[in-house]
Design brief:
Length: 404
């Protein structure tokens, strides 16, 4: 139940471009080799900022999933689903809202930033303020302990951890916790029980966090613990509460920053994006007209790659020999900018060819995508239901037997 699990989401607010690909998606593909991964279309999140253009969200959602699949997200390995199809996200968002102070939300750095940046929209809404609570619910409902995110999302994740801690503090209490935990220890068997006690002591007396880490696999590999006992034993390691919601950690992986064709951050709204599935002719045109070092107004002017937005693309797409050729040719005006850009064009075309090919089968037969998502939703729902059953029970909302 508490095994390593990765979860991440993306908002469907437009076509995916190279910024998304190199900044996140390639990393997602790598992670699925190593971990159980849940990846979802954050369509409710998209509505917090794009509530006036819902049709854009539906179209982008389909194209986005095609891009994921084309990039190598494997539905046999990863669970791919759509947030709005798992209504339990909304239930947990509502319940987490009960214990989340408004001040926490107002202090999230992106709250004011985004309002200023997206000044053309009215973001003084309840939904936009509450968006980190929804993000917390997305993560906590799958008990995911690892969340690959960009720098801008780290504060949201810290908030998620605080929400989980607060929830466990209020609702992880139970009568006779100590006795129940002791009884659960006995069920581990004498050898594991002794080891558990040692590790618990090491943490409680010396704050040894490595002991805490070591205790986790011990509990995970114990197969037939009755329901609730595992949570008790996790909680008992640290204190006197059951762990109902698991605190996630950000997974900050080195990713490449890809500038847009004007040197600014790549973004659809700046009109400087290179799509993940770009027509070869259009791709060639975009790179050929891409800005370069302003010092090279004429072919005979020497330039400096460090001041040129094409250079980061060479870092991604070119080998050392080509990069040396660029530095030498640019700084001595030995090569022209179009010449310099050709290896980048070739590199992107080569990268995108298999992506466009794989995408085609899904574009030809959209039912394939629908089936993959339906399957993913079923798997996700199962996990979400498991957590919600514990959450409802902890909050005194298990009326199954008493009412209705
Ligand atoms: N907030 C993320 C973004 O704007 C998307 C997102 C929503 C997300 N829920 C998440 C990412 C949960 C990771 C985990 O990009
Ligand atoms: Fe940029 Fe290459 Fe032109 Fe130099 S030669 S300014 S690196 S495009």
């Amino acid at each position: 139940m508490f095994a390593d699990r990765v979860l991440s989401g993306m908002r469907p607010t437009g076509r995916m471009h190279l910024g998304h690909y190199h900044g996140a998606l390639k990393n997602w593909v790598r992670l699925q080799e190593q971990y159980e991964c849940f990846y979802f279309v954050a369509d409710w999140h998209a509505l917090t900022t794009h509530y006036e253009t819902p049709e854009l969200i539906a179209d982008s959602a389909f194209e986005m999933v095609v891009d994921w699949l084309a990039a190598g997200i494997d539905p046999m390995q990863s669970t791919i689903f759509v947030q709005s199809q798992i209504l339990e996200h909304a239930e947990l968002t509502l319940l987490l809202g009960m214990t989340t102070p408004v001040g926490w939300l107002e202090r999230v750095p992106t709250y004011k930033d985004q309002q200023l940046k997206l000044a053309d929209r009215d973001l003084s809404t309840y939904g936009f303020l509450g968006y980190p609570v929804m993000m917390g619910a997305d993560i906590l409902i799958y008990r995911a302990n690892m969340v690959p995110v960009g720098e801008d999302q780290v504060s949201h994740l810290e908030l998620t951890r605080e929400m989980a801690r607060r929830f466990n503090h209020f609702y992880g209490r139970e009568p006779e916790f100590e006795e129940k935990a002791q009884a659960a220890i006995k069920k581990l068997g004498s050898k594991k029980a002794r080891r558990y006690e040692e590790l618990r002591k090491a943490f409680q007396e010396r704050g040894d966090t490595e002991a805490l880490e070591a205790a986790k696999p011990l509990l995970e590999e114990t197969q037939n613990l009755p329901l609730g006992d595992r949570e008790r034993l996790f909680g008992y390691l640290e204190g006197a509460r059951r762990v109902i919601l698991v605190e996630p950690k950000p997974l900050l992986t080195e990713t490449s920053k890809v500038p847009g064709t004007d040197g600014q951050k790549m973004s659809k709204s700046y009109g400087n994006a290179i799509l993940m599935r770009e027509e070869p002719a259009e791709l060639t045109r975009k790179i050929r007209t891409m800005q370069t070092d302003p010092a090279r107004a004429r072919r005979s002017d020497p330039g400096n790659p460090e001041r040129c937005p094409v250079w980061p693309l060479h870092q991604i797409y070119s080998d050392q020999a080509v990069r040396d050729w660029v530095v030498k040719g640019c700084t001595t005006a030995g090569i022209g900018c179009l010449e310099c850009k050709q290896p980048v064009i070739d590199g992107i075309l080569k990268e995108q060819e298999p992506i466009r090919e794989r995408a085609q089968q899904y574009l030809d037969d959209p039912a394939l995508v629908r089936n993959i998502l339906a399957d993913g939703c079923t798997r996700a729902r199962k996990q979400a239901n498991e957590t919600m059953r514990d959450v409802r029970e902890a909050m005194g909302l298990s009326y199954d037997r008493s009412f209705g």
